Amino acid sequence: MGIFDRLLSGHHGGGGRHGGGHHDDGHHGGGYGVPPGGGYGNAPPPPPSNAIGCPNCRALNAPGAKFCQQCGTSLTALACTQCGANLQPGAKFCSQCGKVVV
Ligand SMILES: [Zn+2]
Ligand SMILES: [Zn+2]
């Protein structure tokens, strides 16, 4: 009886809460370096490689343009209205029959 009981039960609990030391480290940031800027610089996009050069005035026209924006020359291959031959863009006469291309 006695002594051991006292020792064991009396002094029970009370445990010092020993946890206090937890100052939060860990989160002092700066770890992740987000790179400044966004990678791509401000280089201008390359000019369209398939721009259409006017056969008459050599102005560059947007891809798909049908007429020169500078002189109005047709940029599309036309067919001769008389013989149906393909005409070069800017052609003024049909190379097959000589008809004037309007
Ligand atoms: Zn032109
Ligand atoms: Zn023709």
Describe this structure in words.
This protein has 102 residues and is largely without helices or strands. It is built from 1 helix and 4 strands, in the order H-E-E-E-E. The strands form 2 sheets. The chain has a two-stranded antiparallel sheet with strand order 1-2. A two-stranded antiparallel ribbon has the order 3-4. A hairpin with a 6-residue loop joins strand 1 and strand 2. The longest helix is centred in the N-terminal third of the chain and has 8 residues, at 3-10. It is rod-shaped, with a radius of gyration of 43 Å. Residues 80, 82-83, 85, 94, 96-97, 99 line the site of one zinc ion.
Shape: rod-shaped
Per DSSP E runs of 2 or more residues, the count of β-strands stands at 4
**How much of the polypeptide forms β-strand, as a percent range?**
5-15%
**Chain-averaged pLDDT:** 76
Low-confidence stretches: none
Oligomer: single chain
Percentage of residues in helical conformation:
under 10%
Distance between the termini: 126 Å
Order of helices and strands: HEEEE
Largest sheet: 2 strands, antiparallel
User: What class, by secondary structure content?
Assistant: little secondary structure
